[in-house]
Amino acid sequence: MDCEICHGTRWKSVEIDGVERLVRCDCWRSAVVDRLLDEAKIPKRYDHAELSTFKLKDGSSPPEAFRYASNFVAAFPVVDRGLLFYGPHGVGKTHLAVGILKEAIRSKGARGYFFETRDLLRLVRDTYNRSVDETEMSVLAPVLNADLLVLDDLGAEKSSEWVQETLGLVVNTRYNAKRATIFTSNLDDDLPNTDLRSFIYQLGARTRSRLKEMCHWVKIIGPDYRDVGIDATDREIADWEKNSPASPKNLPADARPKSMARARLKSRDSGTQYELNWSGGKAGSK
Ligand SMILES: [Zn+2]
How far is C-alpha 3 from the chain's CA centre? Predict the structure, then answer.
């Protein structure tokens, strides 16, 4: 349907200092935003994921992770660092990353791109197959060139020399081009180098240290929203902590997250520790 202001011309006249000028109509802007959102390839399941729908259990103080997200969007594209949200499954890392991406597209017209790390690696690997028309570079180009990239679930793919090299290429290229990237990961940085769940084991020391240079590391800890529901009450969270097999309280001792106290000490050099109303972490330190 034609726009009521411009009747489909996409231009409207405004008076600036007494002179009539033509400027882009608002409908043009919203058409551009719609196209950019479409091109960002955000999976359908994140349709609801917005910064405005990101809720945290602790409503009292402005949550650190959310503040990083808002500040990033406000400053974009003049940002010297991206963000790396890490922590256990289901605490809202991808929700936050997608919310940032959408907001940067809407408010700044960013050319953004969302990719799950595992899918990206699969697509690149597929190009080695002769029956596939695309080249490695045609798959990687939008990832390397996007104004803002969300690379979701870093480290979900079983590590290998090839995986490390391919991810290293993405990370390095974006670093050198000063393009902002938002990563999410279930990996941990408080584990020994030999642990499968550590950044250094999965990505290699070089890429990990590059990530330290190019991102603010924000650790998010909390109950799994997919278990407790996004609007869980304190009571429900307490029940989850007590009863869920996924609760750190119920994990075997060697799989439990480090105590909050030790993690906080660590966070002085490794990024930001943000506690998502997670009393289980404190209890685990006893
Ligand atoms: Zn219009």
Answer: 35
Structural domains of the chain ordered from first start: 30-223 (3.40.50.300)
CB 241 within 8 A of CB 109: no
Strand partners, 19: 16
SS3 percent helix, strand, coil of the chain, rounded to 5, is: 45, 15, 35
- Strand partners for 150: 114, 182
Distance CA 165, CA 180 (A): 20
Q: Hey, what are 141's tokens? A: 């180009």
Residue 278: alpha-carbon gap to chain centroid: 21
Contact indicator for 19, 92 with CB cutoff of 8 Å: no
For residues 232 and 57, the answer to whether their CB atoms sit within 8 Å is: yes
How many whole angstroms from 12 Cα to the centroid of ligand 1? 7
Q: Indicate the residue type of 8.
A: G
Task: Say whether 134 sits in a helix, a strand or coil.
Answer: coil
Beta strands in the chain, from DSSP E residues, in sequence order: 11-16, 19-24, 82-86, 112-116, 148-154, 180-185, 215-221, 272-275
Phi-psi region of 191 (alpha: psi -120 to 50; beta: other; left: phi over 0): beta
Distance from residue 30's CA to the centre of ligand 1 (Å): 9
What global pTM score does this model have?
Answer: 0.74
* Cα 211 to middle of ligand 1, angstroms: 43
Question: What average pLDDT does the structure give for the chain?
Answer: 81
Q: How far is the CA of 29 from the centre of ligand 1 (A)?
A: 9
Q: pLDDT of 9-63, one tens digit each?
A: 989 999 988 899 998 898 988 899 999 999 999 999 999 999 988 875 444 345 7
CA distance 125 to 8: 44
